[in-house]
Amino acid sequence: MEKINILIVDDHHMFLEGLAALLANIQDVHLTGTLKNGKEALEFLESNTVDVVIMDISMPGMDGIELNKLIKDSYPHIKTMVLSTHSDPKTINKLIQDDVNGYLLKNADKSELLEAVYSLAKGQNYFSEEVKEKYTNSMFARQSKSNEEPPLSRREIEILKLIVAQNTTQEIAEKLFISQHTVNSHRKNLLSKLGLKNTAGLVKYALEEGIA
Amino acid sequence: MEKINILIVDDHHMFLEGLAALLANIQDVHLTGTLKNGKEALEFLESNTVDVVIMDISMPGMDGIELNKLIKDSYPHIKTMVLSTHSDPKTINKLIQDDVNGYLLKNADKSELLEAVYSLAKGQNYFSEEVKEKYTNSMFARQSKSNEEPPLSRREIEILKLIVAQNTTQEIAEKLFISQHTVNSHRKNLLSKLGLKNTAGLVKYALEEGIA
DNA sequence: CTATAATTCACTACATTTAGTGATTATGAT
DNA sequence: ATCATAATCACTAAATGTAGTGAATTATAG
User: Fold this and answer.
1) Closest residue of A to B196, CA-based?
2) Per the database record, which ranges form the HTH luxR-type domain (chains A, B) (predicted)?
3) Strand C bases contacted by the protein (CB, 7 Å)
């Protein structure tokens, strides 16, 4: 059996080295490279044979979501696995849409890591139990509760950001050169679209969605 | 020279194993244990000789801050080092007040990790450059800008959480069986303590500080 | 035990947000 | 070109939040 060529991408150097040490003594695994950002990874892939890319989600410059997409665009045969400390349904969603092959939490142990790597090498996807659970839960919630996944307009997002920045309706109106009434309308629309109750909800939503 | 007895505490199993692998082949280092939460660590310390404890900041149950404090209370001779992905001035502050001996970012490399470990073993503290910078920056900002470093009371935090959860003043009063006036006072105190303007600011603060 | 801080309550006044209803004018996509 | 959506504006009324001032009671730590 051929060795599995693995590339690890993570800006946390210590984690990188740790993971490398973890994979160093495995028979069927060949650690092709350990890189610390997405840009390096893409350059590396141009001239190296890689079967599986293991990457962190949160990286400066280019995050794991973007890197995964770019890899899949250019090298659809390469299997990608994301490592993260959290399991956020939205993130998982995006990644799955971009054909990610695995999602593992960083509290996974060595055996799970290896199981995941072998699965990917065999052409199977691997998602940790916790991730699968979160994912199905969120799917479930989406069906039962609110079917209207509300796409916010540019203006609404703009206003939402200003709300998060502690601006009052009046201040927002001044900054955007529009009437307070208009800002008010957007505010109301935001609340009703998102099914929220008040400003606190708006701010919470914005921060959790990474809008502000 | 005696070997340095090291205990690692981190709930991220993969990181734990990786770090263990990293320290496994070092001459002067003896990895005494790898545990995954603070409770286990405290039990372990009762019956084992440990020179240096390396711990994660964010752990379920008992976080690194609390664990560090408890260790220092009971075993002041043990050197403690915190590992974290971020360098938050507030956190660093608390830790330093509790006599932490080191603070390393998780993107540190193997050589820096070893340097830190050796420093601690020699009785010197070790803080990574980035951490030192953030810390002095925050000291600087504190002098120039706002002198009030605000420790929120338990009640204030409780109320802040309820605000984040979209409760109105009246609803909070009902849930806590107190007068609306009281809730109002807490609200005002929160705003002035934190130098914020309105509910949006409170929610933003709470989420960014991980309070809610 | 005794300062200090936390928690509680009260009253007033004003600012801001929320809710309801309705309507006109861009803008973009088919 | 037209249909849908986005963006704009208007008015009213009620609810909620913000600000100022003051004070009593209860914990907490030194």
Assistant:
1) A166
2) 145-210
3) 5-12, 15-23
Hey, what are A132's tokens? 């699968």
Write down the H helix ranges in B52-152. Answer: 64-74, 89-97, 110-121, 129-144
Domains of chain A by residue range? 4-131, 148-208
pLDDT at A176 over 60: yes
**Interface membership of B111 toward A (CB under 8 Å):** no
What does pTM read for this prediction?
0.56
Asked if pLDDT for residue A123 goes beyond 70, the answer is: yes
Class of domain B148-208: mainly alpha
Residue A160: the pLDDT is: 95
Q: Provide the CATH number for the domain formed by B4-131 in this structure.
A: 3.40.50.2300
Give me the residue label for tokens 């601006």: A167
Query: Which residues 16-35 on chain B approach chain A with CB closer than 8 angstroms?
Result: 17-22, 24
pLDDT value at B145 more than 80: no
A170 CB closer than 7 A to any strand C atom: yes
What 3-state DSSP class applies to A143? helix
d(C-alpha A167, C-alpha A161), whole Å: 9
Backbone angles phi, psi at B128, to 5 degrees: -65, 155
The pLDDT of residue B95: 80
How confident is residue A26, by pLDDT bands cut at 50, 70 and 90? Answer: confident
What is residue B212's predicted lDDT score, i.e. its pLDDT?
Answer: 66
Chain A positions touching B168 (Cβ under 8 A) are 198
